[in-house]
Write a structure and sequence with these properties.
Length: about 475
């Protein structure tokens, strides 16, 4: 059972953290108490902004002694309400944004050691400056932090080639729920000393401790890139195109993002300065990026040839290849603005689902028809990482509905979509995590064996339940607990 912070704890924290590290001013706290989509509004007695790992450890030790909950927060771009405290106001918000030091970066070792609060776009810049890159990117790169990316096992638009954060984190430093510091930053390629606590912390959404720094894998910088936009008839054809590219262009293909016409229309309507890449109207589009390192030839020729062949055999309807960086960036801007455009357009029930890659096209078509028939007036906009078998199967509210729809009828839509995904053997959280948004659904649909193991791990490492309560780990239902 957690407790609200006592006045003496708040005073002690204020003294230790100083002016920059402690605020209880409601106007400082306000922007950080609502999630990015504006679905959750939380409360907190104070926001703590430590500058060092030792300060994080001190905070956790003091809070653990009083059983006071802590909600870790980085850039607050969670798509699952993961960084928003509950309305109860008994928790303290722990922001890592001041811990934004790049401790080291080595082109020789291909490793960057970044503190939790380093912003993804800043890491990209630092890696480029030493002739390397960190191969994970997403629309929120200007705000999302390393701690948040690690803790959500973030995906993004290069998973096809480089995998999710799990594949890119080579070491972790974290403060565990009793305040002890777990130092496993050494980027060892091989280490069989038992359970891998680092992997356990990746994707733990702050429920097992606070990530304070990570050693991250770098890869060679981009020598040349080729970015294309294709119009096509269906997700099925899109997947056929990807398979064709596998053979013709191979590993150079890093991104393969599916954009339905409705998503493009939303971006054109709501995001200033965007324009349709192709003439004519296509039901679906894909954005493709192929990359070659410095000494290798540009992938443009292979990509152009492959798209020409795809056009000839009717796999695609039309295509353009960006002729310069400005055009490439304009194509990416469309893709990366879909969430923002969707937010401006009104309420939606948002889903982040995966099924087997080869099953995704049929799933998308069948699930869209089923949802739109069962919930008249709704419109499905499913977009994203088709090559990973992961789309954001978002369902727009009927015309005129207000924000309350998302938590009202939208919940019935969500249950319907998740039932379809589960029946297809898929996941209800491919990359955004569970947070508070999917907690009840994980409790309803999660495999009992997996849930029991998660609860056992949580109880062992965080017996007082102070780390990000109400997120990720569903509590045992009362009826079940009393058996
Ligand atoms: P926050 O939102 O602050 O926190 C996320 C979770 O991690 C919370 O549970 C929080 O408690 C926990 N946490 C944060 N820092 C720490 C820490 N140091 N230690 C322990 N726990 C911590 N996600 C994808 O996977 N792929 C995408 O393509 C993608 N695109 C996005 C596009 C937009 C426009 C937006 C708004 C979001 C997108 N996201 C995407 C979701 C989001 O950006 C990621 O989940 C990101 O990893 C969150 O980083 P953050 O620093 O904002 O974390
Ligand atoms: C993306 O792929 C993000 O753009 C956000 O994961 C998805 O807004 C969404 O649903
Ligand atoms: Zn995504």
């Amino acid at each position: 059972m957690s407790n609200p912070p006592s006045q003496s704890l708040l005073t002690e924290l204020k003294d230790r953290l100083g002016l920059k590290g402690f605020t209880a001013d409601p106007s400082d706290l306000a922007p950080w108490l609502q999630d990015w989509r504006g679905r959750y509004q939380g409360a907190a007695a104070a926001m703590l902004s430590p500058a060092t790992t030792q300060q994080v450890s001190d905070i956790v030790r003091l809070c653990a002694a009083e059983g006071v909950p802590l909600v870790p927060q980085g850039g607050n771009t969670s798509m699952a309400g993961g960084a928003t405290p509950s309305e109860a106001g008994d928790a303290l918000l722990l922001s890592t944004r001041r811990m934004n030091r790049l401790r080291s970066i080595s082109a020789e070792a291909n490793v960057a050691v970044a503190e939790a609060g380093v912003i993804l776009a800043d890491l990209h810049e630092a890696a480029a400056a030493v002739g390397r890159r960190f191969p994970l990117s997403l629309g929120a790169k200007g705000s999302a932090t390393i701690g948040g990316l690690v803790s959500t096992n973030a995906g993004g638009t290069q998973v096809l080639r480089f995998g999710t954060m799990r594949a890119l984190v080579e070491g972790i430093e974290a403060v565990l729920p009793d305040g002890s510091i777990f130092d496993s930053l050494a980027p060892l390629k091989k280490d069989n000393r038992g359970y891998d606590l680092r992997q356990l912390l990746i994707g733990a959404e702050g429920t097992l401790g606070i990530v304070t720094a990570a050693s991250l894998k770098l890869v060679p910088a981009v020598g040349s890139r080729s970015v294309a936009w294709c119009g096509l008839e269906s997700p099925d054809k899109a997947l056929a195109l990807l398979r064709l590219l596998d053979n013709a262009v191979g590993d150079a293909v890093e991104s393969f993002e599916l954009v339905p016409r409705q998503a493009l229309d939303l971006v054109l309507r709501h995001v200033a300065g965007t324009r349709a890449p192709l003439g004519g109207s296509h039901g679906w589009h894909v954005l493709i990026e192929a990359v070659a390192p410095m000494v290798a030839p540009s992938p443009e020729k292979e990509l152009g040839r492959a798209l020409g062949a795809a056009l000839e055999i009717g796999v695609i309807e039309d295509a353009i290849i960006a002729q310069n960086e400005a055009q490439a960036e304009a194509l990416w801007r469309i893709r990366d603005s879909i969430s923002e455009a969707e937010k401006k357009d009104g309420p939606a029930a948002k889903h982040d689902v995966s099924v087997e890659v080869s099953a995704m096209p049929a799933f998308m078509i069948e699930a869209t028809a089923a949802v739109e028939q069962r919930f008249p007036g709704t419109r499905v906009i499913a977009f994203g990482h088709l090559g990973d078998g992961n789309v954001h199967f978002n369902v727009r509210a009927p015309e005129g509905a207000d924000q309350a729809w998302a938590v009202g009828e939208g919940s019935a839509v969500t249950a319907f979509v998740h039932d379809l995904v589960t029946a297809a053997g898929g996941s209800i959280s491919a990359e955004h995590g569970i947070g508070q948004m999917r907690l009840a659904e994980l409790a309803r649909l999660g495999d009992p064996t997996r849930l029991a193991a998660m609860r056992a791990i949580k109880k062992a490492l965080d017996p007082k339940g102070i780390m990000n309560p109400g997120k990720l780990v569903p509590p045992i239902a009362r009826a079940q607990a009393s058996l």
